[in-house]
Automatic annotation (TrEMBL):
Gene name of this polypeptide: alr
One of the Pfam families matching this protein, by short name: Ala_racemase_C
Source organism of this protein record: Streptococcus criceti HS-6
An example Gene Ontology biological process: D-alanine biosynthetic process
Domain Alanine racemase C-terminal: 242-367
Name this polypeptide is given: Alanine racemase
Length: 367
């Protein structure tokens, strides 16, 4: 999808806020702990190459979701270690070697498949995944972990790390978290060979569960300045949201009472009203369920009226404004602020999804 550079809708990304957020976390964890910045999904919508390029001197490495995301960073000149958190099928081993990418291996079946195909694991960088209760990927017992690590080492693989992922680290009830942590600690303690890098801490664990920090942390949403728990847990210190989403009025009109607005005629004016049109819609990630939510214009909250369409939304204005008037969808105007977390609450989802849904059609501007 091509970026729409010639319309006034754009996402502004404050790279200094991201580096500041990283330093905030690093100042509160043991100095020897390695920091991996999670830049998967285009750095949660912020732009993977731009973010990684800006922070690479602050961190020890990066985490991505798949091999193509890792290749993109290498081709952009990123030289720090890059861990692929998802499972890459054995057929891509050669590509991982070519781009010096670290693979996650999650099962004995993966190793057996590689060996059946006579694929060369010599020198391949590997982290082993442990399923401590998340239920997605990873070995599920000490015996399986020992067998897998032993087999990988015999095949020439360089097993540099072992990790797990917590399902409920961002929730007030830590019962399941403590179960997972105990399982992982016991497994690591029983390994015949323990890799140097042991990591279980995502953003939530790094913020609220110091006991879950091992020799490295994986920092995702926290570096982009948002609360991983939404509103359930209070942040222990201040972080700065890095992304604002802005547009502008491209059409303004006064409509008489009884005027229908948008697809399905889901809004009808109850009096004479000023209606403004903005050039963005669900193709940009501003989903149809945002009808009834607000945008910010001149420090005032203005409701979205009528259905969000693919390319346009309409808002009720308190007065007439000139074309080109700035509209804030995520960010601040005057003393009013809309966070991605507020958008998520309207949608019944999480702030991660709000950011990741911002499409490539929305240009990113960096400062």
């Amino acid at each position: 999808m091509i970026s729409s550079l010639h319309r006034p809708t754009l996402a502004k990304v404050n790279l200094s806020a991201i580096s500041s957020n990283i330093k905030q976390v690093q100042g509160r964890i043991p100095q020897a702990v390695k920091t991996f910045a999670v830049v998967k999904a285009n750095a949660y919508g912020h732009g993977a190459v731009a973010v990684a390029s800006h922070v690479q001197r602050l961190v020890d490495g990066f985490c991505v979701s798949n091999i193509d995301e890792g290749v993109e960073l290498r081709q952009a000149g990123i030289r720090k270690p890059i861990l692929i958190l998802g499972v890459v099928l054995p057929d891509e081993i050669a590509l991982a070697r070519d781009y010096r990418l670290t693979l996650t291996v999650a099962s004995l079946e993966w190793l057996e498949a590689a060996q059946q195909k006579q694929l060369d694991l010599e020198g391949i960088l590997i982290h082993v995944a442990v399923d401590s209760g998340m239920g997605r990927i990873g070995v599920r017992s000490l015996a399986e972990a020992n067998d897998l690590i032993s087999g990988l080492l015999k095949a020439g693989g360089q097993v540099r790390g072992i990790f797990t992922h917590f399902a409920t680290a961002d929730e007030a009830d830590d019962h399941k978290f403590q179960e997972q942590l105990a399982f992982f600690k016991e497994l690591v303690a029983g390994l015949d060979y323990c890799p140097e890098i042991v990591h279980a801490s995502n953003s939530a664990t790094s913020l609220w569960h110091r006991e879950g920090i091992f020799t490295a942390v994986r920092l995702g949403l926290v570096i982009y300045g948002l609360n991983p728990s939404g509103c359930e847990l209070t942040l222990p210190y201040t972080i700065k949201p890095a992304l604002t989403l802005e547009s502008a009025l491209v059409h303004v009109k006064k409509v008489p009472v009884g005027t229908d607005i948008g697809y399905g005629a889901t809004y009808t004016s109850s009096e004479e009203e000023w209606i403004g049109t903005l050039p963005l819609g669900y193709a940009d990630g501003w989903t149809r369920d945002m009808q009834g939510f607000d945008v910010l214009i001149d420090g005032q909250r203005c409701p979205i009226v009528g259905r969000v369409s693919m390319d346009q939304i309409t808002v009720k204005l308190p007065q007439s404004y000139p074309l080109g008037t700035k509209v804030t969808l995520i960010g601040s105007s005057g003393d009013q602020t809309i966070l991605a977390t507020d958008v998520a609450q309207k949608r019944g989802t999480i702030n991660y999804e709000v950011l990741c849904l911002l499409s490539d059609r929305v240009p990113r501007e960096y400062d």
